[in-house]
Amino acid sequence: MILRYLMYRSRRWTLTKSRGFPKCLAFSLALLPLFVSLCGCAGVVSPGSGTSDTFLLSGTISPQSIGDGTNVTLSGPASASTIGNRSGTYSFSGLANGTYAITPSRSGYIFSPNVQSVAINGSDVSGIDFTASQQSTHPVQLTWQASTSVVVGYNIYRGTTDGGPYTRIATLITPLNYTDSSVASSTTYYYVTTAVDSAGVESEYSNQASAKVP
Fold this sequence. Notes:
By secondary structure, the chain is mostly beta strands. It has two domains: 6-40 and 136-213, Immunoglobulins (Immunoglobulin-like, Sandwich); 44-134, Sandwich (Immunoglobulin-like). It contains one helix and 19 strands. The strands form six sheets. Strands 8-5-13-10 form a four-stranded mixed sheet. Strands 7-6-9-11 form a four-stranded antiparallel sheet, with no helix packed on it. The longest helix is centred in the N-terminal third of the chain and has 4 residues, at 64-67.
């Protein structure tokens, strides 16, 4: 596969020189050129409440000014939502044992991590923290040519370190394009793609493409 990227700078396009793509796994899932353009946990367990059968889950969203007013949703054995207070903290009470997902959201901001999975097992859980960053108004657009092999879709991976590690941000994309809108300002992102066959087997990563968000 060949992976390339396009950057938009001062209204001029620069096409970087492509590099070779490593061999795929046992089968050939070839990804042809990928183009990128720039457009515009676990917590700390604390003692529970003695004989109570329900427990408290809590954390903090920073910076405090953003945490104040951020919506936090809980899903799992129970579903609920709450709003961060003036200290940027939030909590859910009366929770039974089980594994829960906590997701913060606020218009114009992205959160790291974007979701956390937390297990309650007989104790309160605290320290489920998030960091907010202002969302950029310059989403990153990815496009690529179809694999020459028969595939069911493409997975998109992203990282903030040259060479990885990468986190999967999209699964089994069937169009030959993807827009990453969950990017923060003043950050450089690195992207790779894989092709997936009907058995769920992925090719190795394509070459890496990068985009610097203003």
